[in-house]
Amino acid sequence: MLTKKDKKWLNHLSDQHKVKIVPFNPKVKEIFEKQKKEIQSILGENILVIHKGASNLGISGKGEIDVYVPVGSDEFSYFLEKLIQEYGKPGSLYASERARFNRKLENTDIEIFLINKDSSDWTRAIVFEEYLKIHPKALKAYEKLKEEANGLSMREYYRRKIEFINEIIAEASKK
Fold first, then answer.
1. Which residues of the chain have pLDDT under 50?
2. How many CA atoms lie less than 13 Å away from 102 in the CB half-sphere?
3. Which architecture does CATH list for 4-174?
4. Domain locations in the chain as residue ranges
5. Interatomic CA distance for residues 32 and 51, integer angstroms
6. What is the pTM of this model?
7. pLDDT tens across 45-87, in order?
């Protein structure tokens, strides 16, 4: 099931651009560590930098590394400015909630998300990934969903993915 917010967000995605799904590459772990060190050199060595997404779960995906930097709402603007100084204008920005920076490291796409740690986007992401880590059947179903989405439009890929995520979060909230 999709929420109104989900539907609105999906409408901004391309129906033309096709998604390419690739097998898990174990090298992403070391690339993440390099990216983490770079972010900590920019924002401070004590800043939390977390690897999330398919590459963290060890499953097929779009081949990128999702890097999250969760911060409090009172720190968001400060860290946003520091990241802008280093990486330029964010690819997307939802004021005081989330900013996404895109870059490449060792021929691997990296998406760096500065995220408000009190936002529902962040708390839902934690619930989702933790559920998948302790439910191997759900993780396998998620990987299958991704693999079957190869060649679909960006919008359709994310529609299927969000519906799956919403189902898992609903299931997790029952427990």
1. none
2. 6
3. 2-Layer Sandwich (3.30)
4. 4-174
5. 7
6. 0.93
7. 999 999 999 999 999 999 999 999 999 999 999 999 999 999 9
Q: What is the DSSP letter of 47?
A: S
Q: For residue 93, count CB atoms less than 10 angstroms from its CB and return exposed for 0-12, middle for 13-18, buried for 19 or more.
A: middle
Spatial contact of 68 and 100, defined as CB atoms under 8 Å apart: no
Distance, in Å, from the CA atom of 70 to the CA atom of 81, rounded to the nearest integer, reads 15
Q: Give the residue among 148, 149, 129 at the shortest CA–CA distance from 57.
A: 129
Q: How far, in Å, CA of 45 to CA of 101, rounded?
A: 19
- Dist CA 175 CA 41 (whole Å): 40
Give the relative orientation of helices 154-174 and 136-148 as an angle to the nearest 10 degrees. 170
Among 175, 151, 137, 153, residue whose Cα is nearest residue 164: 137
Tokens of 145: 């969903």
Q: Which two three-digit tokens encode residue 91? A: 């690819």
Copy the structure tokens of residue 46.
């004590």
**What is the reported pLDDT for 56?**
97
Quick one: pLDDT at residue 37?
A: 98
Phi, psi of 5 (to 5 degrees): -60, -40
Q: What local confidence, expressed as pLDDT, does residue 95 receive?
A: 87
Q: Which structure tokens are listed for 50? A: 């977390």
State residue 170's pLDDT score.
95
